[in-house]
Amino acid sequence: MKGQFFPSCLRWCSVACALCSIAAAGGDTPAPAKPERARLVFLGSSTTDGNTYPELVSQALTAAGQPAPLCFNAGAGGNTTAAMAKRVEHDVLARKPTLVILQAGANDPGNKVTVEEFAKAVNGIAERLQTAKVPFMFLTTNIRGPKRMQEEPLLIQYNAELKRLAERFSCPIADAYKLEDAARTAGKQVIEEDSLHPNFAGHQLLTRAVLDAMGFPQAVVPATYEPAQLPGIISTWLLSSLPDKSPLTATAVQALTPDAKWTHFNLPETDPQSNWWLEGERRRGVALSLKARAGAGVRYVGVAELEEPVARQAVLNTGAGLQAVWLNGERVYESKEWAGWHPGRDRIPVALKAGRNTIVIETGENFFLSITPDADW
């Protein structure tokens, strides 16, 4: 029962909406202001960075009749728990969460992180969230496949520490490992061939564990993964490959003159991907086929034009292999260290002028870029 108050940020929305309806039906009491949506931040490594189970959690809550939560991805593939701890301010607290879901430990065994070091890193994250008065829950690690079974004894010890820390901080714990292990015992495949990442069935179990820990055992986990296109996708681009690693300069950006040799590239891409996860990213609006469309290159440059009827403030959202963005000749974004694949990993305020705005990007073989009115999507 101790974890049941954590979904109050969601349930309060339902109560407030009901009160709003009663008042609107004819009472003298003014209807209360519309409550803000729950803000869920998912902090983790590649399992989280891949978007799948956070998306499924959102879909399940919405289908269960809950107000649609805002879900912010704070996963970064390859992160140890100590690396996650360094991102709490920028990637978690900056989103003003009402609940944080932390999955730690996936990459710690491969980096020879001891149980004591793991517990210290988790404890540091929990203390920072507690100081900020942000509710949080722990999500246990995933099981391993045959190629990495030597890591599982350490993962079991990590999970024991998570349960101990959950007791200390009186927070819920979503036991994905238990569900995945039971599925494995029943002969089900829930881990990809790399023996590290969950397949779709594994992400469904992660979703089930999170929903149960949030206090929504009746919410149904989606049977299929069909993510919608993300808002603000810039749909029309001209692309060209670049032969070396030298970054673009302001002078080089100003001198760009796209011609008939450049490739026209539209988003979202229309050719389905053979891999289930990449297919989901295609649907969301991630550019995946630069090499196939624009030819082999060390890097790629893209140019897009936006017409704005009036000047306005907006937010530029980055992801995947995007390295730098220039807006009207000024560099407004540069990726200096790995912060994850997920769309929206950085959300940068920008000013769009009335009339034509020129966007230039420098990227690897894939990228995500959108422009939205604000950072809440």
Describe the global form: globular
What fold name stands as the CATH topology of the largest domain?
Rossmann fold
Mean pLDDT, as a whole number?
91
Distance between the termini: 31 Å
Q: Helix/strand/pairing class, anyone?
A: alpha/beta
The number of helical elements comes to 12
Kindly state the number of beta strands.
14
Order of strands across the biggest sheet?
7-6-8-13-10-11
Rg for CA atoms = 22 Å
Question: What does this entry look like structurally?
Answer:
With 377 residues, the protein is of the alpha/beta class. It folds into two domains: 207 residues, SGNH hydrolase (Rossmann fold); 137 residues, Jelly Rolls (Sandwich), CATH 2.60.120. Helix content is 32%, strand content 22%. It is built from twelve helices and 14 strands. Strand 4, helix 7 and strand 5 form a beta-alpha-beta unit. It is globular and about 60 Å long. It starts with 7 loop residues before the first helix and ends in a 5-residue tail after the last strand.
Per-chain topology:
Elements: H1 8-24, E1 39-44, H2 46-49, H3 52-63, E2 70-75, H4 81-85, H5 88-92, E3 99-103, H6 115-131, E4 136-139, H7 152-169, E5 173-174, H8 176-185, H9 200-214, E6 236-242, H10 250-254, E7 263-266, H11 276-284, H12 290-294, E8 299-308, E9 312-319, E10 322-327, E11 330-334, E12 347-352, E13 355-363, E14 368-372
Parallel strand pairs: 1-2, 1-3, 3-4, 4-5
Antiparallel strand pairs: 6-7, 6-8, 8-13, 9-12, 9-14, 10-11, 10-13
Helix pairs in contact: 3-9, 6-7, 8-9
